Amino acid sequence: MRPLIGISCCVKPFGPSGMPNHAASDHYVRVVLGPVGGMPVLLPAAGEEVSRELLTRLDGLLLTGSRSNVCPTHYDGPCHAEGTPEDPARDSTTLPLIRAAISAGVPLLAICRGFQELNVALGGSLDQRIQDMDGRMDHSTPSDQTIARVRTGKAHPVRVAADSGLARLWAGLDYDPAAVPVNSLHNQGVARPAPRLRPEAWAPDGTIEAASIEGARGFAMGVQWHPEFDWERDSLSRRIFDRFGEAASAFAASRSVLSRETIRLPVAAE
């Protein structure tokens, strides 16, 4: 059987009445069905209790990107600028879910907003509107990209640490670790890394673009860019999902049932 991969959802307004819906991009569903080799399960942004029940059934957790930003109350940051989209329901679901997944050894891959959630869940903080900060660059895809390439266009390079898990994951592939082009689409990023967050890749302005989790029992990594958009043509993006899928399959094979006692939801950052 395919491993069950939980995909984090956002709460978004749909239709003329703006009715709230739980949603995740089709890109994440397709990548789970594709290189991950799993069965996608959409996780509603419905709070901590839902997380507790669902995690006992999952073999992997994929934290998605989103236009919304993690509420700064979760990392003692300043209020967002007016008009900045937030999603408190998602925060209340994913932050405890991240801590529980890492504690239980459930394989975890965090992308963009998910990467920022990973850092906040474990006690780190975020920079807001990086493009407005002195000495920093715009981390969104260049505006001269055509509509067809806005999600796959490479915004800037990243430098990958030679002794990192990411470098080992990409072993054997043809790339320059000093300048890996990535399709970046974000305006917030890691400010203070969580105690267990191990940075593994950086943008030219020093922004942390990838990391793993120190002492994690299973696969646990995050990237600030969007490999789900170009995995069909980019071998580095494809390898990330291949390895995540292998970890999820191994996790599924190694357990019969995770008891409720095994899955803990710590309320404070570990």
Automatic annotation (TrEMBL):
Keywords: Hydrolase. PROSITE patterns: GATASE_TYPE_1 (PS51273). Gene3D superfamilies: 3.40.50.880. SUPFAM superfamilies: Class I glutamine amidotransferase-like. It comes from the Bacteria. GO terms for molecular function: hydrolase activity. Pfam families: Peptidase_C26. InterPro entries: Class_I_gatase-like, Peptidase_C26, PuuD-like. CDD domains: GATase1_2. This is Gamma-glutamyl-gamma-aminobutyrate hydrolase family protein.
